Amino acid sequence: MINERLTDAINDQINFELYSEYLYLSMQAYFQKINLLGFANWMSVQVQEERAHAMGLYNYLIERNGEIELECITKPNTNWESTLEVFEETLKHEQLVTGRIDSIMNIAEEEKDRAALSFLQWYIKEQVEEEANASAILQTLKMIKDDPNALLLLDKDLATRTFVAPVIG
Question: What is the distance between the alpha carbons of residues 138 and 81, in angstroms, rounded to a whole number?
Answer without folding.
Answer: 15
